[in-house]
Design brief:
The chain has 715 residues and is an alpha+beta fold. The protein folds into five domains: 1-34, no CATH class; 37-176 and 669-714, Porin chaperone SurA, peptide-binding domain (Triger factor/SurA peptide-binding fold, Orthogonal Bundle), CATH 1.10.4030; 192-231 and 572-665, Chitinase A, domain 3 (Roll); 235-246 and 468-564; 248-466, Chitinase A, domain 3 (Roll). The chain is built from 23 helices and 23 strands. The strands form seven sheets. Strands 5, 13, 14, 15 and 16 form a five-stranded antiparallel beta sheet that branches. A four-stranded antiparallel beta sheet has the order 18-3-22-21, sandwiched between helices. A hairpin with a 2-residue loop joins strand 10 and strand 11. The protein starts with a helix and ends with a helix. Belongs to the PpiD chaperone family. Residues 342-448, 587-662 form the PpiC domain. Pfam families: Rotamase (PF00639), Rotamase_3 (PF13616), SurA_N_2 (PF13623).
């Protein structure tokens, strides 16, 4: 982005807008309510307290700012914003129930402990004192001079307040989390006591190879019913997706290569063969007129250049051309336009914006007034650079102003606006000048310079290998034929036809309304497909076809299931629980066979199942048996009498029958006090998360978003 965008990544106001990480849990709304009588702009309720559109938008803004700073996509954050909004309400409610109050004085006193400020050393002086007065002053200046940035601060402050309340709530409640002497003694006993056992394991997988087991829907439903909390779900949809990508054909590839070769050696039709990429003296203009990617005037190190040319530019003369060569989905020809040492420059600036430009949304001065002010400041600073800081109060870039106007060390490759970079490149240390950009007038002062590695300016003529109209038409024909084949058919037929033709088939079983993308798909059309599936007019078995703009891809969607908020549909979670349920069914069969055989010893059981008798040493705290975690087996080892054969034990990986040979004590290092402190620390670390989850599980949460979005779609 331009210089102001780069600078704005640095100030304290936007540094690390941190989401409330401790609140990142899944909320499960009890049910959806009809909006008859509901107030406009109300997205939901938490224990009766309304979640407004403003609440939701503010949280979404924070997440989008954070994602942008970290170079992550800013789309698809709506569900996370909802969860954090709900969790923030829960924390605030608990805070107020405790009789606590977050005053303005408390906010400023606690600000230095918030991660956003505590992790920035520039917020503290040389003695480690928090610069609270400076930060307050900066906020007041924003309030007076930049309404947009001040409004952003208010949103950020709200997120900070929730974090402060969370710390207070967790600190007050966790103060009662202790570990008794008895608990510590029991942990030490479980850690030190060892049992020597002989055992026979009937492995589930080995048994299933000889005795296949089919898990029915009823089997899955019984498991889900037994664990209702585990399978509590928001409303979701079970989708069948077939993706028809418009992949460029070999003919499309050859046509693109032919096109770039023509521009490279002959020129465009408009040039009538007089100007081509090899002989043009107007490289940037030629690229602007003929390339799919614009000309980049910056200098790059050799390692930043495409692999095809990075080892060739050092010895190449200015004007040398390379290619055509292939870079992913592009054909490229390159020309070395210039080379020079890539100096690093330390500079500072004062930005004088005016009404109507990109940084002057809340500025009333005209362009002429801005230029006059910038020129006068520039003249004073040029004569006496020491006076630079006196004029920072006029800067429309509060981020750099908070750093004395500094924008740090930059190189020609730094993503600043070209005019700013040009001044840095063409002026020496100590220079001061006024430069105009789309953000206003910059008074720039160069503080230092140091030489760097060689930088190269390269003009790249690029042509993307795209699917031709013929290829897109072929994809459309294929997708249309497919949807005609499966119209009104069952989902099994939909899936079978797709697989038979080797189409790209997906079956995401629990797609949420606001998750943004469909797992495994990831196109710009995903949100539209999801909205289609959640439309209240939609019925199971409906199909539709979607076109991905700009690519020609087609998506055929099949609505295979409608899950309302509540308990998950058993088939929707089959992949998750089928292995568990299968093992439970197998365990019952194995245990029944063992009991009916009435074996008197382990050898008889081993013979019955063609298994092997083994030995192991186990304890309760670390219940590993032959490389598998088997807590029930460890429990049986300490519960059965010495020399007696145990009842069959349904383990994690198989059914076990064991005989305890002996018990010993293997004393480990660490006294009782250390054990108590260790357990207490571990419990305290987990407490905040578990406490919030408990609040969520017991809260009355209403989510009106689907109804609101459906109403908007219908308008």
């Amino acid at each position: 982005m331009a210089v102001l965008g780069e600078i704005r990544n640095r100030p304290w106001l936007l540094m690390g807008i941190i989401a409330v990480a401790m609140l990142a849990f899944v909320v499960n709304p009890d049910s959806l309510e009809k909006l008859f009588g509901a107030k406009p702009g109300i997205f939901g309720k938490v224990n009766g307290e309304e979640i407004t559109k403003e609440d939701f938008d503010n949280q979404l803004f924070i997440l989008q700012q954070q994602a942008q700073q970290q170079g992550r996509p800013t789309k698809g954050l709506e569900e996370q914003a909802w969860q954090l909004t709900v969790q923030s309400k829960l924390i605030k409610q608990q805070f107020e129930k405790m009789g606590l109050k977050l005053t303005d004085e408390m906010f400023w006193n606690q600000l230095q402990f918030d991660p956003m400020f505590a992790q920035n050393k520039e917020n503290f002086d040389a003695k480690g004192n928090f610069k609270i007065q400076e930060i307050k002053k900066q906020v007041e200046e924003l309030k007076a001079t930049n309404a947009e940035m001040y409004n952003n601060w208010l949103k950020t402050r709200q997120a900070i307040e929730y974090r402060m309340m969370a710390r207070q709530v967790f600190a007050n409640v966790s103060a009662g989390v202790t570990v008794s002497k008895k608990e510590a003694e029991e942990i030490m006993r479980q850690r030190d006591n060892m049992a020597e056992i002989d055992f026979v394991k009937v492995d589930y997988d080995a048994y299933a190879q000889k005795n296949p087991v089919k898990v029915t829907r009823d089997d899955l439903a019984a498991y889900v019913k037994k664990h209702p909390i585990m399978f509590k779900r928001d409303a979701s949809r079970n989708l069948g997706i077939v993706h028809f990508p418009a992949v460029p054909s070999a003919a499309d590839d050859a046509a693109t290569l032919k096109e770039i070769n023509k521009l490279f050696t002959e020129g465009s039709d408009l040039s009538e063969g007089k100007e081509n990429f090899q002989n043009t003296t107007h490289d940037s203009m030629y690229v602007a007129l003929n390339s799919d990617i614009p000309f980049n005037p910056q200098y790059f190190s050799a390692n930043q250049l495409p692999a095809e040319i990075k080892d060739k530019v050092a010895s190449a003369a200015i004007g040398t051309t390379f290619g055509p060569y292939k870079e992913g989905e592009f054909y490229v020809v390159s020309k070395l336009v210039d080379k020079k040492p890539s100096d690093s420059t330390l500079s500072r600036h004062i930005l004088i914006s005016y009404k109507g430009n990109q940084a002057g949304a809340d500025v009333t001065r005209t362009k002429e007034e801005a230029k006059k002010l910038a020129d006068s400041i520039g003249a004073v600073v040029k004569a006496d650079p020491a006076k630079f800081t006196e004029f920072l109060k006029y800067s429309s870039d509060p981020g750099s102003a908070a750093q004395g106007g500094s924008v740090g060390w930059t190189t020609p490759a730094t993503p600043f606006v070209p005019e700013f970079l040009h001044f840095l490149a063409t002026n020496g240390k100590g220079s001061t000048g006024v430069v105009e950009t789309q953000f206003g007038y910059h008074i720039i002062n160069i503080q230092d310079k140091k030489s760097g590695s060689m930088g190269y300016k390269v003009a790249n003529l690029v042509k993307q290998i795209k699917a031709s109209d013929k290829t897109e038409n072929d994809v459309y024909t294929k997708a249309t034929k497919f949807i005609q084949q499966i119209q009104g058919k069952s989902f099994n037929e939909f899936a079978n036809v797709a697989k038979k033709n080797n189409y790209q088939f997906l079956n995401p079983t629990e797609v949420g309304r606001f998750q943004g993308q469909i797992p495994g798909l990831g196109t710009d059309k995903d949100e539209e497909v999801i909205a289609w599936a959640f439309n209240k007019k939609r019925n199971k078995g409906d199909t539709d076809i979607f076109t991905v703009e700009g690519t020609g891809d087609r998506i055929v969607a099949y609505l295979n299931g409608i899950q309302d908020a509540g308990t998950a549909d058993p088939e929707a979670v089959r992949n998750q629980i089928e292995p568990i349920v299968r093992n439970q069914i197998i365990a019952k069969q194995i245990i029944a066979k063992i009991n009916s055989a009435k074996a008197a010893n382990l050898d008889q059981i081993a013979k019955q199942f063609s298994a092997t008798k083994q030995s192991a040493q186990v304890n309760l705290l670390n219940p590993q048996v032959a490389g598998s975690m088997e807590p029930k087996v460890a429990g049986a080892a300490f519960g059965v009498a010495k020399g007696k054969i145990s009842n069959p034990v349904e383990g994690m990986t198989g059914v076990y029958v064991l005989v305890k040979k002996s018990e010993t004590i293997n004393k480990q290092p660490g006294d009782l006090k250390q054990i108590q402190e260790g357990i207490q620390g571990q419990n305290a670390q987990q407490f905040g998360q578990l406490f919030l989850k408990s609040l969520q599980d017991n809260a009355k949460i209403k989510d009106y978003r689907i109804e609101i979005y459906n109403q908007q779609a219908a308008q």
